[in-house]
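User: Here's a chain of 291 residues. Predict its fold as C-alpha coordinates.
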Amino acid sequence: MNISSISIDRPVLATVMSIVIVLFGAIGYSFLGVREYPSVDPPVITVRTSYTGANADIIESQITEPLEKGINGISGIRTISSSSSVGVSSITVEFNLDADLETAANDVRDKVSQAIRSLPLDIDAPPVVTKEDANSDAIITLSLQSNKRDELEVSDYAENVLLERLQTIPGVSSVQIWGQKRYAMRMWMDPFKLASYQLSPQDVLLALNKENVELPSGKIAGASTELTVRTLGNLTTESDFNNLIIKNTGSSIIRFSGKVVCNLLLCSFPFFRIAQSYPEKSRINAGRTSA
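Assistant: Prediction complete.
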Protein backbone atom coordinates (compact mmCIF):
# COMPACT_ATOMS: atom_id res chain seq x y z
CA MET A 1 0.00 0.00 0.00
CA ASN A 2 1.46 3.32 -1.06
CA ILE A 3 0.64 6.96 -0.31
CA SER A 4 -1.47 7.32 -3.45
CA SER A 5 -3.88 4.55 -2.49
CA ILE A 6 -4.11 5.83 1.08
CA SER A 7 -5.00 9.31 -0.19
CA ILE A 8 -7.72 7.85 -2.45
CA ASP A 9 -9.20 5.66 0.27
CA ARG A 10 -8.99 8.40 2.95
CA PRO A 11 -9.51 11.82 1.35
CA VAL A 12 -9.94 13.57 4.71
CA LEU A 13 -6.52 12.35 5.87
CA ALA A 14 -4.93 13.50 2.61
CA THR A 15 -6.55 16.93 3.00
CA VAL A 16 -5.32 17.29 6.60
CA MET A 17 -1.78 16.27 5.62
CA SER A 18 -1.78 18.83 2.79
CA ILE A 19 -2.93 21.58 5.18
CA VAL A 20 -0.22 20.61 7.70
CA ILE A 21 2.46 20.78 5.00
CA VAL A 22 1.22 24.21 3.91
CA LEU A 23 1.23 25.45 7.54
CA PHE A 24 4.78 24.24 8.14
CA GLY A 25 5.85 25.92 4.90
CA ALA A 26 4.26 29.22 5.90
CA ILE A 27 5.87 29.11 9.36
CA GLY A 28 9.28 28.21 7.91
CA TYR A 29 9.05 31.01 5.34
CA SER A 30 8.72 33.60 8.11
CA PHE A 31 12.04 32.44 9.63
CA LEU A 32 14.04 32.55 6.39
CA GLY A 33 16.95 35.02 6.37
CA VAL A 34 16.99 37.71 3.72
CA ARG A 35 20.43 38.60 2.35
CA GLU A 36 22.07 39.04 -1.04
CA TYR A 37 24.94 36.60 -0.40
CA PRO A 38 25.24 33.64 1.99
CA SER A 39 26.64 34.28 5.47
CA VAL A 40 30.07 32.76 4.90
CA ASP A 41 33.17 34.24 6.52
CA PRO A 42 35.97 34.07 3.94
CA PRO A 43 39.39 33.05 5.35
CA VAL A 44 40.92 36.47 4.64
CA ILE A 45 43.07 38.44 7.12
CA THR A 46 44.09 42.07 6.61
CA VAL A 47 47.12 43.73 8.25
CA ARG A 48 47.04 47.55 8.16
CA THR A 49 49.83 49.87 9.35
CA SER A 50 49.89 53.68 9.39
CA TYR A 51 53.10 55.73 9.14
CA THR A 52 52.23 59.40 8.70
CA GLY A 53 54.52 61.39 6.42
CA ALA A 54 56.27 58.42 4.78
CA ASN A 55 56.16 58.00 1.01
CA ALA A 56 55.25 54.78 -0.78
CA ASP A 57 58.87 53.61 -1.19
CA ILE A 58 59.60 53.91 2.53
CA ILE A 59 56.32 52.19 3.38
CA GLU A 60 57.16 49.28 1.10
CA SER A 61 60.79 48.81 2.17
CA GLN A 62 60.46 49.43 5.91
CA ILE A 63 56.96 48.15 6.72
CA THR A 64 55.38 46.02 3.99
CA GLU A 65 58.38 43.82 3.17
CA PRO A 66 59.32 42.95 6.80
CA LEU A 67 55.71 42.05 7.57
CA GLU A 68 55.36 39.96 4.43
CA LYS A 69 58.54 38.01 5.22
CA GLY A 70 57.18 37.13 8.65
CA ILE A 71 53.70 36.23 7.42
CA ASN A 72 55.02 34.01 4.59
CA GLY A 73 56.00 31.32 7.09
CA ILE A 74 52.39 30.56 8.05
CA SER A 75 51.00 27.32 6.66
CA GLY A 76 47.77 27.18 4.67
CA ILE A 77 48.22 30.52 2.87
CA ARG A 78 46.71 30.66 -0.60
CA THR A 79 47.68 34.17 -1.73
CA ILE A 80 49.28 37.31 -0.26
CA SER A 81 48.68 40.74 -1.77
CA SER A 82 49.96 44.07 -0.47
CA SER A 83 49.46 47.74 -1.16
CA SER A 84 51.91 50.50 -0.16
CA SER A 85 50.67 54.06 -0.45
CA VAL A 86 51.54 57.36 1.19
CA GLY A 87 51.40 56.78 4.94
CA VAL A 88 49.55 53.44 4.80
CA SER A 89 50.57 49.80 4.32
CA SER A 90 47.91 47.17 3.72
CA ILE A 91 48.56 43.41 3.45
CA THR A 92 45.77 40.96 2.56
CA VAL A 93 46.34 37.28 3.37
CA GLU A 94 43.95 34.71 1.90
CA PHE A 95 43.96 31.20 3.36
CA ASN A 96 42.63 27.94 1.97
CA LEU A 97 38.90 27.38 2.30
CA ASP A 98 39.39 24.58 4.82
CA ALA A 99 41.44 26.81 7.16
CA ASP A 100 39.97 27.86 10.50
CA LEU A 101 39.56 31.64 10.55
CA GLU A 102 40.30 32.07 14.28
CA THR A 103 43.45 29.95 14.09
CA ALA A 104 44.63 31.80 10.99
CA ALA A 105 44.06 35.18 12.66
CA ASN A 106 46.04 34.11 15.74
CA ASP A 107 48.92 32.87 13.56
CA VAL A 108 49.03 36.18 11.69
CA ARG A 109 49.00 38.14 14.97
CA ASP A 110 51.90 36.09 16.30
CA LYS A 111 53.99 36.68 13.17
CA VAL A 112 53.16 40.39 13.14
CA SER A 113 54.16 40.68 16.81
CA GLN A 114 57.51 39.09 16.00
CA ALA A 115 58.08 41.43 13.04
CA ILE A 116 57.28 44.63 14.98
CA ARG A 117 60.90 44.88 16.14
CA SER A 118 61.92 45.32 12.47
CA LEU A 119 59.53 48.24 11.90
CA PRO A 120 60.38 51.92 12.43
CA LEU A 121 60.05 53.05 16.03
CA ASP A 122 57.99 56.15 15.17
CA ILE A 123 55.06 54.48 13.40
CA ASP A 124 51.67 55.83 14.40
CA ALA A 125 50.51 52.60 16.07
CA PRO A 126 51.22 48.86 15.96
CA PRO A 127 49.85 47.02 12.92
CA VAL A 128 46.14 46.24 13.12
CA VAL A 129 45.06 42.69 12.22
CA THR A 130 41.40 42.30 11.17
CA LYS A 131 39.28 39.42 9.91
CA GLU A 132 36.86 39.57 7.01
CA ASP A 133 33.29 39.38 8.26
CA ALA A 134 30.34 38.63 6.00
CA ASN A 135 28.09 40.74 8.26
CA SER A 136 30.36 43.79 8.48
CA ASP A 137 29.16 45.52 5.31
CA ALA A 138 27.26 48.77 5.75
CA ILE A 139 23.51 48.36 5.37
CA ILE A 140 22.28 51.94 5.92
CA THR A 141 23.79 55.28 4.88
CA LEU A 142 22.38 58.47 6.37
CA SER A 143 23.03 62.03 5.22
CA LEU A 144 22.97 64.82 7.82
CA GLN A 145 22.62 68.51 6.95
CA SER A 146 21.30 71.67 8.58
CA ASN A 147 20.38 75.20 7.54
CA LYS A 148 20.90 76.63 11.05
CA ARG A 149 24.01 74.83 12.34
CA ASP A 150 27.55 75.12 11.01
CA GLU A 151 29.75 72.16 10.08
CA LEU A 152 31.31 71.88 13.53
CA GLU A 153 27.92 71.81 15.28
CA VAL A 154 26.59 69.22 12.83
CA SER A 155 29.67 67.05 13.43
CA ASP A 156 29.26 67.38 17.19
CA TYR A 157 25.58 66.43 16.98
CA ALA A 158 26.36 63.39 14.83
CA GLU A 159 29.11 62.18 17.19
CA ASN A 160 27.48 62.83 20.57
CA VAL A 161 23.79 62.29 19.81
CA LEU A 162 23.13 60.20 16.71
CA LEU A 163 26.15 57.93 17.08
CA GLU A 164 25.27 56.91 20.64
CA ARG A 165 21.62 56.27 19.77
CA LEU A 166 22.41 54.18 16.70
CA GLN A 167 24.97 52.06 18.56
CA THR A 168 22.37 51.04 21.15
CA ILE A 169 20.06 49.51 18.51
CA PRO A 170 20.07 45.69 18.82
CA GLY A 171 22.00 44.07 15.98
CA VAL A 172 24.18 47.13 15.18
CA SER A 173 27.88 46.28 15.48
CA SER A 174 29.49 49.58 14.50
CA VAL A 175 28.67 53.06 13.20
CA GLN A 176 31.10 55.19 11.18
CA ILE A 177 30.95 58.94 10.59
CA TRP A 178 32.23 60.28 7.27
CA GLY A 179 32.84 63.93 6.55
CA GLN A 180 33.33 64.89 10.21
CA LYS A 181 35.12 68.14 10.92
CA ARG A 182 37.02 69.28 13.99
CA TYR A 183 39.20 72.19 14.99
CA ALA A 184 42.92 71.76 14.34
CA MET A 185 45.95 74.05 14.48
CA ARG A 186 47.64 74.38 11.10
CA MET A 187 51.29 75.54 11.27
CA TRP A 188 52.97 76.92 8.16
CA MET A 189 56.76 76.65 7.89
CA ASP A 190 59.16 78.71 5.78
CA PRO A 191 61.98 76.33 4.76
CA PHE A 192 64.40 79.21 4.13
CA LYS A 193 63.91 80.64 7.61
CA LEU A 194 64.29 77.20 9.14
CA ALA A 195 67.47 76.55 7.16
CA SER A 196 68.94 79.89 8.28
CA TYR A 197 68.66 78.69 11.88
CA GLN A 198 69.88 75.19 10.97
CA LEU A 199 66.49 73.67 11.70
CA SER A 200 64.27 71.18 9.87
CA PRO A 201 60.57 70.25 10.06
CA GLN A 202 61.63 67.23 12.10
CA ASP A 203 62.94 69.60 14.80
CA VAL A 204 59.55 71.31 14.87
CA LEU A 205 57.82 67.94 15.21
CA LEU A 206 60.12 66.88 18.05
CA ALA A 207 59.47 70.17 19.86
CA LEU A 208 55.70 69.71 19.52
CA ASN A 209 55.85 66.14 20.80
CA LYS A 210 57.97 67.24 23.73
CA GLU A 211 56.12 70.39 24.78
CA ASN A 212 52.51 69.72 23.75
CA VAL A 213 51.84 67.01 26.32
CA GLU A 214 49.98 66.77 29.61
CA LEU A 215 51.62 64.46 32.15
CA PRO A 216 50.49 63.40 35.64
CA SER A 217 51.98 65.64 38.32
CA GLY A 218 51.27 63.61 41.44
CA LYS A 219 49.52 64.63 44.63
CA ILE A 220 50.00 67.00 47.54
CA ALA A 221 49.08 65.49 50.89
CA GLY A 222 48.59 67.32 54.17
CA ALA A 223 47.43 66.40 57.63
CA SER A 224 43.78 66.16 56.62
CA THR A 225 43.79 67.07 52.92
CA GLU A 226 44.99 65.43 49.75
CA LEU A 227 45.03 67.34 46.47
CA THR A 228 45.70 66.09 42.96
CA VAL A 229 48.04 68.34 40.96
CA ARG A 230 47.27 68.88 37.30
CA THR A 231 49.80 70.47 34.98
CA LEU A 232 48.31 72.24 31.97
CA GLY A 233 50.83 71.30 29.31
CA ASN A 234 48.68 71.14 26.18
CA LEU A 235 48.98 74.01 23.71
CA THR A 236 45.53 75.36 22.90
CA THR A 237 45.80 78.90 21.51
CA GLU A 238 47.69 80.53 18.65
CA SER A 239 49.83 82.39 21.19
CA ASP A 240 50.86 79.11 22.83
CA PHE A 241 52.02 77.69 19.52
CA ASN A 242 53.74 80.93 18.51
CA ASN A 243 55.76 80.94 21.76
CA LEU A 244 56.77 77.28 21.39
CA ILE A 245 60.51 76.86 21.91
CA ILE A 246 62.02 75.02 18.96
CA LYS A 247 65.66 75.11 20.02
CA ASN A 248 67.61 76.35 23.00
CA THR A 249 71.30 76.97 22.26
CA GLY A 250 72.14 78.26 25.72
CA SER A 251 72.77 81.85 24.66
CA SER A 252 69.56 82.25 22.69
CA ILE A 253 66.14 80.67 22.26
CA ILE A 254 64.54 80.06 18.89
CA ARG A 255 60.74 80.24 18.98
CA PHE A 256 57.82 80.49 16.63
CA SER A 257 57.44 84.25 16.30
CA GLY A 258 56.87 86.98 13.78
CA LYS A 259 53.62 87.78 12.03
CA VAL A 260 50.88 85.18 11.84
CA VAL A 261 52.29 81.72 12.48
CA CYS A 262 49.37 79.45 13.32
CA ASN A 263 45.79 79.38 12.13
CA LEU A 264 42.96 77.76 14.05
CA LEU A 265 40.62 76.33 11.46
CA LEU A 266 38.27 73.51 10.64
CA CYS A 267 39.98 70.65 8.89
CA SER A 268 39.29 67.07 8.03
CA PHE A 269 41.08 64.16 9.64
CA PRO A 270 42.41 61.06 7.84
CA PHE A 271 39.79 58.64 6.50
CA PHE A 272 37.22 61.47 6.31
CA ARG A 273 36.22 62.44 2.80
CA ILE A 274 36.21 66.24 2.76
CA ALA A 275 36.69 68.59 -0.19
CA GLN A 276 36.71 72.03 1.38
CA SER A 277 38.86 75.09 0.80
CA TYR A 278 40.76 76.48 3.76
CA PRO A 279 41.07 80.13 4.80
CA GLU A 280 43.94 82.19 3.48
CA LYS A 281 47.26 80.58 4.40
CA SER A 282 50.06 82.32 6.28
CA ARG A 283 53.67 81.29 6.46
CA ILE A 284 55.67 80.61 9.55
CA ASN A 285 58.46 82.97 10.53
CA ALA A 286 61.07 81.58 12.89
CA GLY A 287 62.48 84.38 14.96
CA ARG A 288 65.31 84.60 17.48
CA THR A 289 64.88 86.12 20.93
CA SER A 290 67.45 86.66 23.61
CA ALA A 291 67.39 84.32 26.56
